[in-house]
Design goal:
Elements: H1 2-23, H2 28-36, H3 45-54, H4 60-72, H5 91-98, H6 102-110, H7 116-130, H8 137-145, H9 150-175
Helix pairs in contact: 1-3, 2-4, 4-7, 4-8, 5-9
C-alpha cells in the first residue's frame, strides 16, 4: 500500500528536478514570461516546452506550479544563479526561518484546496525576498496537487520544528 505513494513521490521529485534544471537554463526574459503567465490562458511557449520535456501536466495546476517555480527562480544571468530547489530545506522550515508569521501559516492551512495556488504564489514571493539556501519545491508541488491534509501536516510539522529550534537558539543567546 505504501509503494504507490513512494512511486508517486519519486516521480514528483524527478519531475521537479527536471523542471528546475531546465528553468535554470532559461534566459531572464523567458523566466519573466513564466512569472507573468496567466494560468487560465493558453500558457507561454516556455511552459509548453517544459511540459513536453518533463511530462508535466498541461493543465492549470501544471501552469500554476511552473509560475510558482519561476517566481522562486533567481533573477539575473544564467551563470550567476544559485540553485533554488533543495530537498533538505522543507517549505515549513524555510517559512519559519524567513519570519513567516504563525497567523499567516494558520490562514494558509485553513484555505480551501481551490485557493491554495494563489496563496502559494504569495508565499513564493515572500520567501524569494528572504530565501538563503533554497526550498524543497516538492513540498510546494504536493500542496498544489494533493487535496489532502498530509501535505499541510508536513508543512506545519517542519514549521514548528524550525520555530522551536529558533526560539531555543534565541533563548540560549539571551542567557549569555
Amino acid at each position: 500500500m505504501l509503494e504507490p505513494v513512494q512511486t508517486q513521490d519519486d516521480d514528483l521529485k524527478s519531475t521537479i528536478a527536471a523542471l528546475v534544471g531546465k528553468m535554470m537554463k532559461f534566459d531572464p526574459g523567458e523566466l519573466a514570461r513564466l512569472r507573468r503567465m496567466d494560468v487560465d490562458g493558453p500558457g507561454e511557449l516556455e511552459f509548453w516546452r517544459l511540459a513536453h520535456d518533463t511530462g508535466l501536466r498541461g493543465d492549470t495546476s501544471g501552469m500554476q506550479l511552473v509560475k510558482i517555480l519561476a517566481l522562486l527562480a533567481p533573477r539575473g544571468d544564467v551563470g550567476s544563479r544559485a540553485p533554488f530547489h533543495r530537498l533538505g530545506e522543507p517549505l515549513g522550515k524555510v517559512l519559519a526561518e524567513a519570519g513567516f508569521s504563525e497567523k499567516r501559516l494558520a490562514s494558509f492551512m485553513a484555505l480551501p484546496f481551490a485557493r491554495r495556488a494563489e496563496a502559494l504564489e504569495g508565499i513564493a514571493r515572500f520567501i524569494t525576498r528572504k530565501m538563503k539556501l533554497g526550498v524543497n519545491c516538492v513540498d510546494i508541488a504536493q500542496l498544489l496537487f494533493v487535496n489532502d491534509v498530509w501535505p499541510l501536516r508536513q508543512l506545519a510539522r517542519h514549521y514548528y520544528t524550525a520555530s522551536d529550534r529558533i526560539a531555543a537558539a534565541e533563548a540560549k543567546g539571551e542567557d549569555k
